[in-house]
Amino acid sequence: MTPGMPRWSPIAAAISVGGFIGLPTVALLIRAASVDPFATGSRPDALASAVWLSIATSVLTLIIAIIVGTPAAFALARVPFPGRSLANALVDVPVILPPAVAGLALLLAFGRRGLVGSWLADAGITLAFSTTGVVLAQCFVAIPFYVRTARAAFLRADRDLEAAAMIDGATGWGAFRHVTVPLSRPALVAGAILCWSRAVGEFGATLMFAGSLRGRTQTMPLAIYALLDSDLDGAVLLGGAFVTVAVAILGITALFTSAKPIAE
Known about the structure:
This protein is about 75% helix and about 0% strand. It has helices spanning about 10-35, 45-80, 85-95, 100-110, 115-120, 130-155, 160-165, 170-200, 205-210, 220-225, 230-260. The protein is globular, with a radius of gyration of 22 Å.
């Protein structure tokens, strides 16, 4: 406790913040629980389509982030190479870009007349306004959150333990797998949560680069926005589903991270 600070001050602050964040969420869930999905102006299968598209694309984005982002973060943290400072800076750019600017950048790069997209179009590959475009937009805005967190974790990992493992006969890969990753696991999981939450909640870049085509590119955030004027109950129902999925993922993650590793 900080000297001079009343004991109740941090408690009151925590309750205030929790209440401020929790109240709108509770209000949404209460309203969503009262909505009959078969009585809304939207077809239940259309709502379900947006839910499953969001889940499928965001999970795919997370898998890509882990597979590609983990070694990239390690290289950015530990491996000296020409241009590493520039690469570190570029990874941070999507984090501060407004979503609309991110979508515009994707169009100029991967659209049919884009820097790379024109070559892809000549080869018969179209990324914009497709489900693949949704994943690409999510990857662009979400992967940096995982890489940034993983990079910081690898910088903090105890290198003496890694060196001891290699002295005992472990290879560089073995030390990374059995020492570095377990030491960094809480941060890696936190980064994965940030990445997934950013991907599943992505709106602006997806709208500009992939559009809002029902059953093809219309994710939950886009469907909610589209329903606000025509079907408020449908928007509320989707919002409730969004919160439920997020809470379930956070609960599963909490169980995973609270499990203690078995000593070998």
